[in-house]
Amino acid sequence: MTDNATSSPLEKALARADANLDGSxxxxxxxxxxxxxxTDPAYKDDCEAAARWxxxxxxxxxxxxxxRPTGGQPMVLAHEKSAAGTHVLFxxxxxxxxxxxxxxxxxxxxxxxxxxxxxxxxxxxxxxxxDDKGQLLTFVEACRAWREANGALPLPVSILLEGEExxxxxxxxxxxxxxxxxxxxxxxxxxxxxxxxxxxPAITLMMRGLCGVEIEIEAASRDLxxxxxxxxxxxxxxxxxxxxxxxxxxxxxxxxxxxYEGVEELPSQIKELWERLPFDEEAFLNKVGLSVPAGETGxxxxxxxxxxxxxxxxxxxGGYGGEGFKTVIPARASAKxxxxxxxxxxxxxxxxxxxxYVEARLxxxxxxxxTVHSSSRAxxxxxxxxYLAPTLEALTQEWETEAALSGGGGSIPVINxxxxxxxMDALLVGFARFDNxxxxxxxxxxxxxxxxxxxxxxxxxxxxx
Amino acid sequence: MTDNATSSPLEKALARADANLDGSxxxxxxxxxxxxxxTDPAYKDDCEAAARWxxxxxxxxxxxxxxRPTGGQPMVLAHEKSAAGTHVLFxxxxxxxxxxxxxxxxxxxxxxxxxxxxxxxxxxxxxxxxDDKGQLLTFVEACRAWREANGALPLPVSILLEGEExxxxxxxxxxxxxxxxxxxxxxxxxxxxxxxxxxxPAITLMMRGLCGVEIEIEAASRDLxxxxxxxxxxxxxxxxxxxxxxxxxxxxxxxxxxxYEGVEELPSQIKELWERLPFDEEAFLNKVGLSVPAGETGxxxxxxxxxxxxxxxxxxxGGYGGEGFKTVIPARASAKxxxxxxxxxxxxxxxxxxxxYVEARLxxxxxxxxTVHSSSRAxxxxxxxxYLAPTLEALTQEWETEAALSGGGGSIPVINxxxxxxxMDALLVGFARFDNxxxxxxxxxxxxxxxxxxxxxxxxxxxxx
Lengths: 465, 465
Fold this sequence. Notes:
Two copies of one chain form a homodimer. By secondary structure, chain A is α+β, with helices and mostly antiparallel strands.
């Protein structure tokens, strides 16, 4: 790095970030190698290792950093408040989704690989590359560059890294309550969302909520031979298929009583904004081998994925799934299903209505086990947030194109937790791409997302300081 | 064994069978230890080992025995024709069903265990104990006892043991065609069916046919994040549930066009016979944790399981089935389903109709893979068969109670193959019990089935000679 006495702190930090890139990538790979799958108890030690690794990195950067135990995976909490000014709290999560089906990965999901991309970019391929290890490191590496270039950060920074975002964030609420004095800041920054497109950065204004439920239906006390019992014995897979098939009509509407209470039509202002956005429905679907929107009739794809609620079957298990054939009537069947929620839909009420719906359709001899895995409301970020304009401007400068205000189909329940428990608003700034294969085999993050993500945060820190 | 000069050959053979029992059990255990799962290619060597073991046993008993290769698992074919008279061809199968869910077995499925039964009997617990290793050995051990007691068998005996009965018997037809001169006999004897109840033996007069089909539906080119794509992307599990749920109405009737063509009402003669049989519907269902018949409204349980066709879902696989939760829209879903057929229902036409039914309901962007695993017509044994009466009488003598003429819900496609390709009728004589957990964890065979099964065949050999 050449230190130019006439450079501004911002320019120095940007130059330092670029000079750091190889080292940043090595650190990124170290974190990707840790198998921090939060939803599977087999990976508990790995989650703790990821937390310790991150706390170590932050301590190196002058943060007062610690690993905080919870009832589940630990939190990482760190503060660097040597400067005065706007206090920002950055949130990310170090846990990742399970990797199956493992057979569809082209390389070991926990041995990151660089792969050349068609557009000249480079892909960093590994589980968590995008969601959320790569994204959270853009902020950490921005802090590193700023500190190494200028000695100290330009404003007070706190960092909270969760280890259970992919597992329902069960311990987050109690943790926020218990540490609210420590966490209270002027604004929350979150890096867990997508860019508008490869060239256009975005701040996400709305995120859907989520009800995630597992239902298990048990009939006979053991698996039965379909020759001996077939015709007289209840088949729980048949019961499951019938119950799940009945939840959605041919127009894609969800047939649960009261489901659409709290769902409002998109404000015309947002609708017009989205219509102007350069979004190609066909290309969006084509990219994953599809061509026809499968959601509610008469809605645009952006509405379907950002502004409308859904019902999805995320998994069904039951009976024989091995090679060949087995004429079994299984004793039990289970399904993991989820609803994405928008507006004021109440996840608790929807879970209850769904449970009642299932119970009402259970025939004789069927027992139900109903487990709620996650439950969160939709989020809307106010356009009145005073930090929105400078952040948007910083992004626009880095990417040299006007940043977008977009919607998002996924759920980041923590946003509501910050608002409801600590009264803090959040800005969702992310550098992931639509084609990152988040939650899928061969997840990737673009090297340009990583490099320009780091540079974007440096500009945002400068803009907010 | 005390050799009594005044005993008949039959009495000598029966005494010899009882004296042999411990040795017979050891041989049974040796066969049970061989993991001959035909449907899974991983067990190919085990299937061959089972075939070689059986051919070795039969050679020991003076049979001209050999292992005959096929396109799949080998056949065992053996002849002992030193006597004149009625030539019988015995058929059994040495292959077994897969063992999953393995966690529900109380002991290793391939390490047979003796367990005391509540009724004072003893259970032999292992995969294949009943279906069909125990059953086929009753005949082999009957031949052993007769030969050891009397020097030679009382009539010409051929034995055909298949290794793919649980995998669709794909190579059986060609094998029968190729060896018809060798196989042609006066009557086929099959031991793969149930007793009427613990005390009452039975000859099974009708067996249902089977269409076994696997359908795979593929939508997107990869698994998708339900937050990013949910609402716009087609979910193949939802398509699968909808297609399968639509096949059966609330009265249990199957909604496939033309499905009931060839299904006739039960002849009143058989209906009356079955009504007289000591069958307790409630006890039959209670035994496996059920209480209400789930089949067609207005039919008795015996009709539902023996005389009516069915549709069953034998397995569904798709999406995330591990611990916790994963908000995925899977790229594909698959299901194994089967129809049990009766009367003159045509399995080939039903497979075609089913395929058309599925294709007609596939929405845009869904590709179908449709695999027929098995296809067999129902079987009816003629009551005019001249070997029926002496066989019934031999069973009645051994069990000291009148043997029953029953129906059976399972499928033994080989019966039709013998009839259609070789013009031979078969008698289905079996010693399995309803509660043998065939195809399920903890499969068992009763020691009394094994002992009295051997003795029954000795009496049948005498009666037919």
